[in-house]
Amino acid sequence: MPVAELLTLKNKKVLVVSHRGADVDALASAGIIHLLLMDRNYVEIAIPEHLNNSAKRLAETMEIAYAMQPKFSDFDVLVIVDLNSYNMLGPFAEAVEKFKGKIFLFDHHSASEDVIAKEENSLIVEDAASTTEVLWCFLTKHAPEKLDERIALLTACGLIADTAHFSFASRNTFRVMAEALKKTDKTFSEIIEMFSVERELSERIALLKAAQRIRIFRANKALIVLSEIGAFESQSAAALLHLGADVAFVGTMEDHIVRVSGRAKFSFAQAYELDLAKDVFHKLSDFFEGEGGGHITAAAFTGRANSVEEILQKCLELLIAKMKEKEPEMDIKEYKEK
């Protein structure tokens, strides 16, 4: 398996790169690669633009150093984690595309059309709950002796965060979590504390505004909601599911760039054989300049449009089209405020 050649690297300068707005799974995956290679190579981690607060907390807890403006020409090898689309690289995209050395890639998102690394150097497992799960299974097969306590802790953090505390997870995900826990002396609650942060006031206000500005659609027994806010769109979409929506699309615009996040309940996705990334967010690039991607129940799009509303409306149209494959006569009704 050529991707396993990663484990044989020696005396190389390796740059580990994840996506902009890196989350816990992204940083934990980068941390795992760093731990794997650091004994025989010079390894740095680079994150484009920013990390979310939970990832920052994990970086502090696990003492994971990272750069935000690396010089790509200084490195022999790139390892890309938790993404497979150039769009997710933000300001790093051009440098990665022009990189002349070997590139390895590990991910669990729905595969995009971009070819960042050669197929034989890529490991994309779309039904994995997190990229840390992908890496744990990879190491279990190729280097089980490397699975120490620190890698176990990072794996667990990535799993817990990306599954929303196991709100959706496969049998394999629970198996990996059980194996990782055996390698540590920490409880489940103690691991959560490693990346937990209090919601900032600005985030709490954004969540409330998302609920205040909501548009509600009923499609048979399903509730689909749209909302527009100034920031924290992914957190707001997740919060709207907790309030009762089956699917939520939340968008924001900043400096003429539109970002839209989508979330769907797993039971809804199963009922309609929906892959939110493939059936909605990948297709948005057919109508708007930009790129989307993600998972079955969580996805996002970043691009340009005249307004957030027109992208939200297209998300709704694409979702309804997918639902009608199962229920062609389905009625759609918007609830208007009285």
Automatic annotation (TrEMBL):
It comes from the Archaea. This is DDH domain-containing protein. The lineage of its organism: Archaea, Candidatus Iainarchaeota, Candidatus Iainarchaeia, Candidatus Iainarchaeales, Candidatus Iainarchaeaceae. Transmembrane segments: none annotated. GO terms for molecular function: nucleic acid binding. Residues 13-158 form the DDH domain. It holds the Pfam family DHHA1. Residues 244-317 form the DHHA1 domain. InterPro entries: DDH_dom, DHH_sf, DHHA1_dom, Oligoribo/pAp-PDE_c-di-AMP_PDE.
